[in-house]
Here is the input.
Amino acid sequence: MKKIEAIIRPEKFDEVKNALADAGFPGITTYEVKGRGRQKGITLSYRTSEYRVDMLSKVKVELTVRDEDVEKALETIIKVAKTGNIGDGKIFVLPVEEAIRVRTGERGDSAL
Amino acid sequence: MKKIEAIIRPEKFDEVKNALADAGFPGITTYEVKGRGRQKGITLSYRTSEYRVDMLSKVKVELTVRDEDVEKALETIIKVAKTGNIGDGKIFVLPVEEAIRVRTGERGDSAL
Amino acid sequence: MKKIEAIIRPEKFDEVKNALADAGFPGITTYEVKGRGRQKGITLSYRTSEYRVDMLSKVKVELTVRDEDVEKALETIIKVAKTGNIGDGKIFVLPVEEAIRVRTGERGDSAL
Amino acid sequence: MQKLSGRRSIAFFSAIVLLATNAFADNAVSKVDSGDTAWVLVSAALVLFMTPGVGLFYGGLVRRKNAVSILIQSFTIIALVGLQWAAFGYSLAFGPDIAGLIGGLNWAGLTGILSDPNPVYAATIPQSVFIMFQAMFAIITPALIIGATTDRMKFSTLCIFVLLWSTIVYDPVAHWVWGSGGWLKNAGALDFAGGIVVHVTAGVSALAAAIVLGRRRDHGAGNLVPHNVPMVILGGGVLWFGWFGFNAGSALEANAIAGNAFLVTNTAACAAAITWMLISWIHMGKPNAVGIVTGAVVGLATITPAAGYVGVPAAVIIGAFASVVSYVAMYLKNTRTKIDDSLDVFACHGLGGTIGALAIGIFASKAINPAGGDGLLAGGASLLGTQVLAVAATWIYSFVVTIVILKVLDALMGLRVSAEEEEIGLDLTQHGEKAYT
Amino acid sequence: MQKLSGRRSIAFFSAIVLLATNAFADNAVSKVDSGDTAWVLVSAALVLFMTPGVGLFYGGLVRRKNAVSILIQSFTIIALVGLQWAAFGYSLAFGPDIAGLIGGLNWAGLTGILSDPNPVYAATIPQSVFIMFQAMFAIITPALIIGATTDRMKFSTLCIFVLLWSTIVYDPVAHWVWGSGGWLKNAGALDFAGGIVVHVTAGVSALAAAIVLGRRRDHGAGNLVPHNVPMVILGGGVLWFGWFGFNAGSALEANAIAGNAFLVTNTAACAAAITWMLISWIHMGKPNAVGIVTGAVVGLATITPAAGYVGVPAAVIIGAFASVVSYVAMYLKNTRTKIDDSLDVFACHGLGGTIGALAIGIFASKAINPAGGDGLLAGGASLLGTQVLAVAATWIYSFVVTIVILKVLDALMGLRVSAEEEEIGLDLTQHGEKAYT
Amino acid sequence: MQKLSGRRSIAFFSAIVLLATNAFADNAVSKVDSGDTAWVLVSAALVLFMTPGVGLFYGGLVRRKNAVSILIQSFTIIALVGLQWAAFGYSLAFGPDIAGLIGGLNWAGLTGILSDPNPVYAATIPQSVFIMFQAMFAIITPALIIGATTDRMKFSTLCIFVLLWSTIVYDPVAHWVWGSGGWLKNAGALDFAGGIVVHVTAGVSALAAAIVLGRRRDHGAGNLVPHNVPMVILGGGVLWFGWFGFNAGSALEANAIAGNAFLVTNTAACAAAITWMLISWIHMGKPNAVGIVTGAVVGLATITPAAGYVGVPAAVIIGAFASVVSYVAMYLKNTRTKIDDSLDVFACHGLGGTIGALAIGIFASKAINPAGGDGLLAGGASLLGTQVLAVAATWIYSFVVTIVILKVLDALMGLRVSAEEEEIGLDLTQHGEKAYT
Ligand SMILES: Nc1ncnc2c1ncn2[C@@H]1O[C@H](COP(=O)(O)OP(=O)(O)O)[C@@H](O)[C@H]1O
Ligand SMILES: Nc1ncnc2c1ncn2[C@@H]1O[C@H](COP(=O)(O)OP(=O)(O)O)[C@@H](O)[C@H]1O
Ligand SMILES: Nc1ncnc2c1ncn2[C@@H]1O[C@H](COP(=O)(O)OP(=O)(O)O)[C@@H](O)[C@H]1O
Here is the structure.
């Protein structure tokens, strides 16, 4: 099993969520995070001043999938999350040694 | 070392937290996340309409433990987090290569 | 590639963020988390009562780096995040199998 | 003077006294009654407070990314219309009549007319106080409309729209109904506190604006949920509080008519809130909190035109009936149409104002207000017809002129933000700010 | 008429004048004083605003998952009791006396009694205004109780409870103390603005309700911390603001008694807030913000019955003393009992109202209000006894009847939500809404 | 009595009547006018409400970790100064004059002076009402200062500072300008509603405090962004609402002067808000929401001293000009100095009050208020000089004495929290609370 961690634009989240479900990945966990990368940040203003905020709001979507499903999930996410502009985000793939369904105690792929 | 990531019902969090401490795992980090799985989501209403929210509030509890403690920690969590209903959550186990205590610079198991 | 997860004091975050950028690690993702460790928690008061809150606000900084950069990143974080008091936090290092830049589809080290 | 005035006797008597005590009088403002003045001053302040109240009510209903946007829109409208009113708005609405259609610009700039009462409108308070009380009505009316255009309208265009709309829609209609010589006033139309002038104009214009603007890009996606329900409830509380100034203040005296307006306002709001609660409980299995507050607002809007003319039993009927109609209208809008009147301004205010204005034709009674009229139940056959005329004229005028204004603005400066800006939210893109950090 | 009235002379004179100018008078409402009417109208609006204020104060104190629930409970109570009051509540409380115990239903529906003053209660304002002012007291009282039942009571049962409680507890006690012919009023009991009628009934009933309902499932777990302290402070600010209407409005005239009530109200609140701050600073090492606001509310509640009868020094003593007692009571409740009066309604209002009502028996002085009485310090020996009687009767009656109502409702429809619903929170389970998204 | 009084004639007449009807009069309070009393009672309540309003306005601007801190500071100041005022503050400010500099302690404790009007200050309302109206001014003034000291000042020291500052700065300056016999009043200085007494003292003292305290440790780091913009806008709405009591209430009668003050207050706020919006739009490319609210507050502060003396056109000029000056001052402070007047109290209130006070010397006209004066434009050459004198004296006195007080307190108990406490935030370290959980 692999864990896919995709950091995406918040405004793309609904699309990614739906695309993943359509592609057979209903199970996801999401975080509201702030990120910095190559993107310059945004300019906010307060009274007479402007200031740059370099930590931007992002959504991190996390899903653990069977080894053979990794590519499909990655493609699904990239397809809808991509705008072509800096700040589209990153995806990381990590090894997972075990998965357990709390309700039943099932382990391994069948717990996903 | 392994990292245990348990996604549980928010209302079970206090019990899990206490159970882990009792079982010898005081060190935990938690996230407020939203998740979707087999659970159908909940129905919210707004004026004359109902709508389904498929991303539900969950708590993710994360703890890094020594290899030999993994099973004990898993059992502890499952015991209290389980209600038997859909939405009880999932636990993932990931390999951890190194742990460091910032205060002392200690590394490895003793940093936990 | 390795993923570095550093759980630090919130008040140290700005310093850590800047130090990482200066050390050549602009790309980071951060979470607002709550954590418990050896730290006793803080005492809050409400009307006539005091109560201890054992889950304290922490910031988790996450960055994926090339294998050869791990030590440098760790040192950078430890140097500024350390106060010497209990509650300074922990750093975990996890293996990452793949990284992808959503915008371009690049993979591997060059996606970082 | 439209109101029952037990104080006329005192005013008359005071006049005699003044002849005798003239040597001691500084000037002739002695017709001013301090109690009435105190009440209308407070009422003006209360109505001013309603506009941030609308902002909170709306602000809680939108998503986090547009919260600053709608709150600052309502706040800015205070400033825009406040200036317009002083510059020429008051004069257009209440100035010397021109052909029953509009006031002359004689009082533009508000100089030289402030201290003495204008007995045509309010005989016992300085005209400055009447001007300010009316200003707050002119202000809140466009602030209601923004519930229909939220989440997608350019801030710059909105500012221009508000100024044009106040001038071309609000001021004329206010003149027709309330201005001395206004054609609807002359026809005998009754609108105690602005059911027609405020709620019908705002509600119908909101519908027009929603149609011209088109839907939000993610309309219907089911994620358009209130971001802050406590803020909605607070806004509802501020509105209820301020509405006493709105309705009971419209008596323009601190007298029994004001007392009646206060009482029926409260009662109608209660009846409407409970009715809405019960409908949503039956329809959806749970009593919806936002719905209960919405019901109260519908009740308050609906009783507004009638508050000075009807009694307690009528108030209960009016409030309850309005909730049913408004609920059904929202339901049909959501299920049968694609119109994105985002926060249901039309269903709340357009229908509320209409129902209330027509209800006068049924329930009004001279026993409650001799300066009012007799509706059907009190044997007055003609009033309902007049009310229908007034409402119909206002509907048509508001709808058509709003569409024209918006089409012109669309051509000149564009109405909507870009798709990307809409996705990111108006707070960041229009104001460079985030609601919460 | 209970109040000192320098205006009686004017009223008398006006009467003569009216005979002379009768031809010019529309009717006989000329006894209405516009200044008094303005003041009581405003006061009624202010007291209405206090109920959402209570909602905010309580709403900030509960956890996030129950915030909508308590806010909408307070809002809904406005609507429920507002209707009940118009239907029969006012008549039960203030209608023609039956055996000193209750008003008759003669005025049910509020028809035909609105325009003229009812000189028995307030000689210079239309009765409609008196009715509305009193309505707001009837509304806020049960809205105080929900601080004891929060986080676990079924919304449906709460609605029925409120209607029954208003009818069987509030209306009778209001009649006893304030109603013409009420047995406690006849006995000479004094309660200027509702220390007995409002705060004792609410506080003691809250205690009863907390006992009958039982504790929250996670009571004592130490995680019951305020979810939004700014909301608590805002609520406290709204309450302080509105309380001027509550207390100074109870003079029912804009006169020196109102001025005194305003002044001692403010002073007692200040003294109580500072006292609480100092106690918490000493006791816990830090001045607790929620505590400072709580202290102010305790001071406001405590001065309420006495506001029209005592002077500034007494106000300082009363406020400071009330904070000490309330603090100790909360501390003992938390450490020595298992009672879950969740937001300490009893300690704030039950004890506050009691202390204030008894303080009248000590500090009241006819030098301040000739229509009041003389307490111990002014040489009046009997007043304290009467006050003890009034408080004791109200304690017992409120406590017993509340328990009976709740036991009956428990049997009929159940009082508490299920354990699972309580865990998930009332917002989602009772209303299908989330406070913040 | 400072105000135009068409009611003097009535008062005189009433006096005659009273002779005739003396037998029926309870006492001699009949000079009290119920309408004026109602208005000033309400105004006092409105000004009280402004202090939590300032708390919200400031609370939204600070970071999350200091939100409770600043909100409870403003709340606590109500209690501290409310008590000080009753104990001796009122007497120092308005008591029998000593050498033009300060009032005597004759009225300390406020006994025996409450019921009758004090014709020197307000002839038609009980002195208790005047005392309370003035109390609210004494309260809000130090509550403005905390915008400069936020995020770093110890709560204990702040409490002592507020008590000392009220006593040594506010009370004397209030006496100079408003007290009977005050030297600036005698010199003919005009300050209708506190531009000098409130805004100049607060703004200049804030500047002094910012300098003495030094900067926040992370000042300039660019992360000092408002944590809750809706809270800022709500605070701005509450302030606007309350300011009608502040300014129009300062007429101390419900008359045409009050009406004028209400009107120009609203107009100046509108002009200032729009001006700020346009400047920020041009300067930064977007209309800043916090800026629009800030502009309104600047306009309200600036018109304050002039509200009873100038007309509508002057109000527009004053409001717009003040926004420009305040904007530029903030910009220069941020770019050219290291001063950390954190929430720009000086630029808003110090400059606003100064501009408004000087504007009187230019725009005032006896045509608007015979009890006022004639400025340059009305041919009055000397008034401007007097205003300059009053402003200059107040600047110097406030600045110097504030520095002295703070230096003494620094030596005795320390001004700032520790660096670590500042990092963690004042909510946790000073109060043991978190704003949101
Ligand atoms: N090395 C990294 N480790 C962890 N998160 C990263 C890293 N680099 C970027 N991110 C996350 O990805 C987001 C997008 O990165 P950015 O560099 O702006 O986009 P792009 O890859 O399109 O240039 C950042 O906001 C941050 O949250
Ligand atoms: N494949 C997955 N990857 C990551 N998180 C998941 C995955 N599947 C489920 N989850 C998380 O677990 C939670 C519970 O899952 P759900 O399927 O509802 O429960 P159950 O396993 O009892 O059927 C979800 O809300 C989501 O946060
Ligand atoms: N075993 C663990 N697994 C995951 N997170 C941990 C673990 N131990 C500690 N933490 C996190 O690190 C934070 C700091 O730990 P703590 O023990 O208080 O500090 P220190 O290491 O200086 O003694 C905790 O608040 C928690 O978020």
In short: The helical segments of chain A are 13-22, 70-81. Chain A touches chain F at residues 44-53 (CB under 8 Å). Strands of chain A lie at 2-8, 28-36, 42-46, 49-53, 56-65, 90-95, 98-101.
